[in-house]
């Protein structure tokens, strides 16, 4: 953008004032500093590109999210067949795996929802919480945290 953009001398034809990227028809448009009333498009999240080349079939291009969803589906199926602890562990591990994929791969397709950091923290935190709850589920928990029992008795009494 030139220094004299406001005068009209350094701007493209048909555009007065500050000019930004062209509109869909290719004409230059005037840019306001105000937020638009309607959002016309959104930026793709960092790493939101294809995970495989464009000529690959659609499932191959989105393999990271398909892997996570498949593991979650198997976990839900196990939970439905009364293998609750293993099923919920698998769901938590799938989310932790999604966080690892989001961290290590440059492009993860639809697994990228927000920024890389936010996705990693969200997937990782939810995965760890689900795994811990699956390990502590009654009866016969695989993980016993002593102070939680004392905290529960203190809170109730």
Structural features, described:
With 157 residues, this protein is an all-alpha fold. The chain has helices at residues 58-61, 63-80, 84-104, 116-136, 146-156.
Major sheet attributes:
none
Strand content: under 5%
| Helix/strand class | mainly alpha
Form type: elongated
Which parts are unreliable, with pLDDT below 50 for 5 consecutive residues or more?
Answer: 1-8
Contiguous helical run count: 5
> What's the alpha carbon Rg, rounded to whole Å?
25 Å
Number of strands: 0
Average pLDDT for all residues: 79
Summarize this, please?
The protein has 157 residues and is mainly alpha-helical. It contains 5 helices and no strands.
Q: What is the fold's blueprint, element by element?
A:
Elements: H1 58-61, H2 63-80, H3 84-104, H4 116-136, H5 146-156
Task: Provide the descriptors you would attach to this structure in a database record.
mainly alpha; disordered N terminus; 5 helices; 157 residues; 0% strand
């Amino acid at each position: 953008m030139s220094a004299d953009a406001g005068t009209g001398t350094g701007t493209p034809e048909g555009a007065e004032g500050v000019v930004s990227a062209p509109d869909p028809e290719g004409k230059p448009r005037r840019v306001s500093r105000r937020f638009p009333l309607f959002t016309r498009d959104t930026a793709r999240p960092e790493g939101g590109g294809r995970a495989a080349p464009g000529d690959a079939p659609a499932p191959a291009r989105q393999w990271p999210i398909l892997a996570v969803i498949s593991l979650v589906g198997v976990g839900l199926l196990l939970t439905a067949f009364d293998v609750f602890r293993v099923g919920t562990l698998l769901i938590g591990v799938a989310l932790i795996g999604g966080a690892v994929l989001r961290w290590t791969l440059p492009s993860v397709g639809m697994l990228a929802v927000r920024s890389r950091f936010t996705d990693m923290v969200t997937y990782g935190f939810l995965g760890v919480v689900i795994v811990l709850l699956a390990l502590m589920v009654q009866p016969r928990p695989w993980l016993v945290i002593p102070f939680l029992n004392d905290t529960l008795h203190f809170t109730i009494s």
